[in-house]
């Protein structure tokens, strides 16, 4: 029960109201409860396998065993072992269902498990009435009903929280992919601040001194920018664009550095 109450504080199944701005429960949760988002197999594989937290099993089983130990003396001696075993079996089944919903949190699966739990509770009620009689069965049936009710509520909240976790993971991966794309575009464009500033400084100096290199270098620099700037908006580019970038870059560096730039090339050719 403590686990369910703690989960409520983290649950975000509310949707903002357009009128008051307050959070309201979506109407579909009353008729067909569960997460509305359905993930494809590709999205689940992309989000990665996140193992079921085994600490939940330990916590729930410890609470159930403690409650059984406290109330064991009130159960008729002849039925105590069977009823205790039934409670533990229901708890283990509930945890198994929770793990299935953790792996695939869908609305259909949640409602099928909830329906199966309701039918199981009806069968349990009929069995207890046949074994203990009507009045005695009602007392023990309340315990089983409480386990089923808490389990169904926990399944519902677990499914919604799991969907939010997967959505957050997918958003994180999308952000990382977008950052990687931007980094590749920046690297592909090869626009380095010192290269731009040095080229502009050289052009300014040549214009002031009326150096004949100013015109040809300015044309090469313009071609370089025209070829590199569109790369920020495209994932790929043609070989002709690459050659244009290299040609313009070499022409600019040749004008700026002259023989000092061509020296390493000559040494490699030798």
Automatic annotation (TrEMBL):
Domain of life, per the record?
Bacteria
Q: Name the InterPro entries on file.
A: Bact_2-comp_sensor_kinase (IPR050640), Sig_transdc_His_kin_internal (IPR010559)
GO cellular component terms given for this protein: membrane
Coiled-coil residue windows:
163-190
Q: Which residue spans traverse the membrane?
A: 79-98, 110-132, 138-161
> GO terms for molecular function, please?
phosphorelay sensor kinase activity
Q: What sequence ranges are listed for the domain Signal transduction histidine kinase internal region?
A: 188-258
The protein's UniProt keywords, in alphabetical order, are: Coiled coil, Kinase, Membrane, Transferase, Transmembrane, Transmembrane helix
The cross-references to PANTHER family, in alphabetical order and at most eight, read: SENSOR HISTIDINE KINASE YPDA, SIGNAL TRANSDUCTION HISTIDINE KINASE INTERNAL REGION DOMAIN-CONTAINING PROTEIN
Any idea what this protein is called?
A: Histidine kinase
């Amino acid at each position: 029960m403590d686990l369910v109450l703690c989960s409520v504080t983290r649950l975000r199944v509310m949707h903002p109201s357009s009128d008051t701005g307050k959070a309201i429960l979506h109407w579909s949760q009353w008729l067909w409860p569960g997460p509305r988002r359905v993930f494809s197999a590709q999205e689940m594989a992309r989000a990665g396998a996140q193992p079921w937290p085994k600490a939940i099993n330990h916590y729930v089983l410890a609470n159930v065993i403690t409650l059984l130990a406290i109330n064991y003396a009130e159960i008729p001696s002849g039925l105590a072992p069977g009823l205790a075993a039934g409670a533990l079996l229901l708890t283990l089944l509930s945890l198994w269902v929770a793990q299935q919903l953790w792996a695939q949190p869908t609305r259909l699966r949640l409602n099928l498990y909830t329906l199966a739990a309701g039918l199981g509770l009806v069968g349990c009620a009929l069995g207890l009435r046949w074994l203990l009689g009507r009045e005695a069965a009602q007392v023990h049936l309340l315990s089983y009903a409480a386990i089923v009710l808490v389990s169904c509520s926990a399944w519902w909240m677990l499914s919604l929280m799991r969907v939010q976790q997967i959505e957050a993971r997918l958003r994180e991966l999308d952000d990382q992919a977008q950052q990687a794309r931007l980094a590749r575009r920046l690297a592909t464009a090869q626009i380095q601040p010192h290269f731009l500033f040095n080229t502009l400084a050289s052009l300014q100096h040549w214009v002031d001194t009326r150096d004949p290199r100013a015109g040809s270098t300015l044309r090469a620099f313009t071609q370089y920018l025209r070829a590199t700037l569109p790369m920020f908006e495209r994932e790929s580019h043609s070989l002709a664009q690459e050659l244009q970038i290299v040609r313009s870059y070499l022409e600019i560096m040749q004008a700026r550095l002259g023989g000092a730039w061509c020296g390493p090339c000559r040494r490699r050719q030798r």
